[in-house]
Every structure is written in C-alpha cells, then in structure tokens.
Amino acid sequence: RNQMAAFRGFVFRLPRTLRSIRLFPRQLKSYSRTLNAAGTPSFKLTSGLVVSACIASTSVVAYAKESDESTRKRKFKSAEGADNRFDIFRPVAKLFGRVYDAFVPPDKSMLLPPALPDEWGGVKRTLVLNLEGTLCNAKYADETYRITIRPFVATLLSDAEALGYELVLWANCYQSKIDPVLPKVDKEMRILHRLGQEDCTYIRGEYVKDLERLNRDLGKVILCDYQFESWDFQPDNAFVVPRFKDRPDKALVEVDVLLECINREGIEDVRPTLRRIQDGESLDDIFPDVTEIRKKKLRLYEREKKAVKRRREEEEGKRIQREMAHLTRPSKR
C-alpha cells in the first residue's frame, strides 16, 4: 500500500515537473534581465554600500582585537606565552554574551566545600591548574584520546603536595574530556578537586574562572593558565604559563620554583608577588636564593627526562619483541 501511494504521488507530480522544465527559458530571461540591471546606478550604489559595510566591520573587528591585546599585554608584561583565543566569531560571541548577561545573572554559588586545614591547623595555599594546553595536550582519534603529557608534570604535582598546596584542576574543557584524560596525567591521584568549563562563569561571551566561587582565601590562590579570559575577574591571582605545543619545555619548572620560594618565604598573600611578576620582574629579582632552587629543580627535570626516555625505549623494545615472536611463530595448517 505504501509503495502504491508513493508511485501515485510520483505520477501526479510528473506533469508539474515537466512544466517547470518548460519554464526554464523564462527563468533564464529573468536572470539575464538581472545581469543587465547590474549596470544601473541604484545597483552600483547598493553594492558599494555593502562592500563599504564589510570593510568597516572588518576594520572594527581588527581594531577591537588590537586594542584588546595591547591593553591586556600592557597589564601583563610577562605574558608572551598567553593566548586570548581570538577568532572571527569573537565579536558575535561578545554581542550574544551581552544579551545573555541581561537576562541570566551570573552564578555565584560555591563550587568546593570549605578547605581542610594543614597539619599545623593553618590554611593551605591552593594551586589551580588548567588541563589542556597547560599539563598536557589530548586529541581524540580512533575512539580514544592520544595524550602528550608536558615534561615535569609528575614532579610538579608531587612537590606541590609535599609543600602543602591543595591541588585543584579547573580545565577549559568539559568533564566528559577530563574524566578519561586526567587519570593518565595524574596517575598518583594527587589532585583533590576537578572542575570543568561548565563550572566557569559565562559573561560577555567568554568563560571566566571566578576564583571567588572556590570558597578559598584569594590571598592563597594561584591560577596557572595560558588564556587571558580565564582570570578576568581576579587577574592578580594569575601566573602565566606558556601554552604547551607538544615540544619539551621547562615552563612547569618555573611554576615549581615559584611554589617553593613562596613556601620558604612564608608569604601570606601571594597577589603582590604575582603582580610583580606580571609587571615584568623575574623570580631572580624577587627571591634571593632562587638560583639554588632552580638548579635543584633542573636536576630533577633532567632525571625525569632520562627516565621517560628509558621507559619509551623499553616499551619500544617490548613491542619489537612481540612483533618478532609473532613472525617466528609457526603457522597452524
């Protein structure tokens, strides 16, 4: 019955289809009249206005990008490795964000329970780390994530925990990506809390990490990230880490040196120190004994680098042995 109904509909539509084919020359004539009208003054005026509007909008977008970047880089002189995720849709996202902000107030609820005291009854410092681009790079392929871990991650997490820092992960991605990636990055499970992009505050078309929602003393919070919009609410708590580009670097060594220097000096409020770093001062200008600490961390870095190389060689040797065993195995006929 369904096949007969479909065939009947095709037969009934056939004359209409043939008539549309017959009308094709008329459509061609109307199209040629449109082409002839392209030389009229009104058409030239309209096309000129459209082209001028496109050029003006492009100039406005370029100026907004340049002023935005120059303002942020004046505020962060040490932010050469930072990224602001500018793209062609950013002005549209900002416009939509302003409309969204007018109807939906930002969420101010606390994301974490109150902090546990340290072993002496004091307040722990909190280290907030980003995942993608800071600790690792993870690309989804063949129904799994191919993860490239940044050098010195394991040592940084171990040293931070030993120094008494509370470790919090606040990623720029959703929990659906954090759950399969983080166990391979933090194998010892030293990170106590994990937050994602759904926990950020969406304002002005950007996802901002509002550190006040962590339920922690902001004077003891350090945010390590590479994106400008992540710390728009609390810029004084930011320590800029260059984005990881799948090449060995020593960016996390500097983070580890900073944590140990703050712990040695017994700094109660980290914001003035981070502000001096943002103004262009180096760790050598702020802390007197940073050279010895950096040498110690670099020795750990080289040791970890050799261990990773040795582990890869062992894995490659085992893989070659398995392939050779498979090739030399007699076939069963």
Automatic annotation (TrEMBL):
Keywords: Mitochondrion, Protein transport, Transit peptide, Translocation, Transport. InterPro entries: FCP1_dom, HAD-like_sf, HAD_sf, TIM50. The keyword Transport applies. GO terms for cellular component: TIM23 mitochondrial import inner membrane translocase complex. SMART domains: CPDc. Its main location: mitochondrion. Residues 311-333 are annotated as: Disordered. Signal peptide: none annotated. Belongs to the TIM50 family. PANTHER family: DULLARD PROTEIN PHOSPHATASE (PTHR12210). Essential component of the TIM23 complex, a complex that mediates the translocation of transit peptide-containing proteins across the mitochondrial inner membrane. This is Mitochondrial import inner membrane translocase subunit TIM50. It comes from Lotharella globosa.
